[in-house]
Amino acid sequence: MLSGKSWVFREADREAAGRIARQAGISAFLAQILAARGLKDAEEVKRFLNPSIDGLHDPFLMKDMDKAVLRISEAVKNGERIIIYGDYDVDGITGTSVLYSFLRRLGADAGYYIPDRLDEGYGLSVGALEGIISGGAKLVITVDCGITALEEAGYAVENGAGLIITDHHEPKENLPEAHAVVNPLRPDCGYPFKELAGVGVVYKLVHAMCKKLGLGEIYNDYLDLVALGTVADVVPLTGENRIIVKNGIPKIENTGNLGLKTLAGSCGIAGKPVTTWVIGFVIAPRINAAGRVGDAGRGVKLFTTQSREEADAIAAQLNDENRFRQETELEIYRQAVDSVDSTVDLEREKVIVIEGNDWHQGIIGIVASRITEKYYRPCILISTADGIGKGSGRSIEGFNLFKALEHCGSLLDRYGGHELAAGLSLRQENIDEFRRMINRYADSAMKKSGLIQKVRIDARLHGGDVSVDSARQLELLAPFGIGNPTPVFAYEGLKVVESRAVGDNRHLKLKLEDNGNVMDAIAFNMGNLAGEFENSDVLDAACSLEINAWNGIEKVQLNIRDIRPGESALKEDRFYVSLDACVGKHGLKSGAVLSRLPQGKDCGEEMSIGGVMEETGAAGRRTAILVNSLEGLESVEKNIIKYSPGIKKDFKICYTDFVDDGLDIITVIVNPDLKGIDFGTFDTVVFWGAWPFKGYFHKLWNSIGGRKVLCGFKDRPEAGFDGIIPERHDLAAFYRYIKANCGPSFRIKDIFSFARRLSGNRKISMNYFKVRRCLDILEEIGVLKQEAEGEYGVYVRLCSRSGKANLEDSPTFRSLRSLKRGTG
Description:
Layout: E1 6-9, H1 14-24, H2 28-36, H3 42-49, H4 65-78, E2 81-86, H5 90-105, E3 109-113, H6 126-134, E4 139-143, H7 150-158, E5 162-166, E6 180-182, H8 198-213, H9 223-232, H10 239-253, H11 258-266, H12 276-292, H13 297-304, H14 308-343, E7 352-357, H15 364-375, E8 379-385, E9 388-394, H16 401-407, E10 414-417, E11 421-427, H17 431-445, E12 454-457, E13 459-461, H18 468-474, E14 489-502, E15 507-514, E16 517-523, E17 538-550, E18 553-565, H19 567-582, H20 609-619, E19 623-627, H21 630-643, E20 651-655, E21 666-670, E22 684-688, H22 694-702, H23 728-741, E23 745-748, H24 751-762, H25 768-780, E24 784-789, E25 793-798, H26 811-821
Parallel strand pairs: 1-12, 2-3, 2-4, 4-5, 5-6, 7-8, 13-14, 16-18, 19-21, 19-22, 20-21
Antiparallel strand pairs: 8-9, 9-11, 10-11, 14-15, 14-17, 15-16, 17-18, 23-25, 24-25
Helix pairs in contact: 1-2, 1-3, 4-8, 5-8, 5-9, 5-13, 6-7, 8-9, 9-10, 9-12, 11-14, 12-14, 13-14, 14-15, 20-21
């Protein structure tokens, strides 16, 4: 059931969250999320929640912007032929459409050129420039490409064409020779925001032109397309990108762009709210389809046409091609997964590099993204034909794919891109060596821990936070995307009420209970887990809140991102397993709860656990704290947090066994093993909490030498027995349950889950340790036979009996009863 993902909790400053809530006039629920994301005061919060166009930076802060504006203005004034050379993805198509529409609005002699993805590949090419220049172009302006095109830029300049590059990809060491290179990522550019999409750079260029020519704010007429391209290019939705998208989405919903309005209508979202999800998964794939499986230039035609008939025809074509893209993508994905599973050693290879004969080059990038998501590895898919491989790659957090390709540049014919996505071409004979080289680079650049996917948690969720009102408040944080993800919460201690697979068994539908409140939950692409859950299982969920409307009724639904066994339940499970291992056999026959300290030993100072924490933390003494009760364990954890917050990172909890790594100041050992633990490395040993098994305690006490601090025991002698001694009514309920529900012979695959089901069904307190004792007792009186199966399972056969069984015939039952009475 474990995904292997790591939950990373953002540490919210409670004081800052409270201050933000008061000063900004927002709820504490919303304030804690904003504080966790680094917002420090009310003014920052107000700017974040209400990002204004007025907050955009002066476009002339961008290097070479003044040169670009001057050259374009001259070309427009002089009637020179201008060709916009755009990329074939949504970013390039929208950027080209914006610049083309604007230049035509100025009366320029403008045209555009979008290269064919399959025949020409990414970026500028000498062949395309030759045709453009011979066709009379005096100025070429790139959109979303060109920053690494050194040779191609030189060709344009040598052949008398002016060249302006606008791009947002990573530059190489040298910049292309051009009249202007407008890219916030160029090393000498001081522009304050570096994460603009290609269409964002174009938007800044148009903004600068408007300022220079005194055209007012007509640059904002294009915000719908700018927001669309920004979201589609998956750039961080922070800073200026947040301003663009927050203000651009309402324009998409009420767009005056005929082509965009027609496309929205054709895919069924006209008149509906637009979100970043709608843009990324409904609108953008259809635009991308134009370049992936056909002529990308149709995307520009769609967004610049004034003909309804042309818009309808292009929108219909894009919908058809998107369906073809989906089918082709699925087939390549299946082949790619088969290849990974059969040929890639995931223990050894950090970067997945696989090749396929004649895979559709326009689609392998999408598949690479899905492979990266499935295996959480950087992935490069390479399509081979006629001895040439053309690849597309996607990366994970912490691994810069562009730098990795730069390291392997000697094997590549071409490459380009940025940290998380890149493209390349190489000779097929070099693919194997490329695979080895990029993995050697990954070994040096990325630790194995980097391959553990992180789930970033904004806050812990409590029952009172789950409401339609809370979900509505979260909408204020939109638009969501990279850099500003949908808030994710840790919701702990949820009990499973119902679990089933839905959507062709791809997704998991759950009903979860928290203190009597039952909630719906959906876990997309986790349908394989449907059989993993039993009713009454306890789990923790990393989830977001969303509103689900059905028949006019709005309810909150949990959208689950990850699931793990409930931490509180896991703690109990670990405790009872270790208790069973260490005292289940050693302590049952010698008992009475320990109510006073042993005599005749140098016990050191008797003190409170708080005193121990303060003394240990101040002196830096290495201390072992030994506990034998769940109550004692919880007390220790609370006091470590309370008294020694600075030591928290230097303490660990061990169950039964202990391996000394010499790193921790405080080591809590739960139910320590009677053998094999060397306490000589500790300055202080502390016994804490209730120790119900006196014989076990004395054996452990006598095995420890050196100075000790012995804390006082609980006043309630029976405290240590809470939850571990089965009473007569427990045994009766246990027997009735297995007889009614399990049949004459059955397997308990997981005693933990079985105990929770039994507790819920019979309204009794049951756990691993008590189930083990119940089985032992009932076996001793001839009611059943048991055989261990696996680490936490057991096979049980009920025995036929003629007479009534007597619990007094069980040595285990008698010992447990004597222990509790204090007579053992």
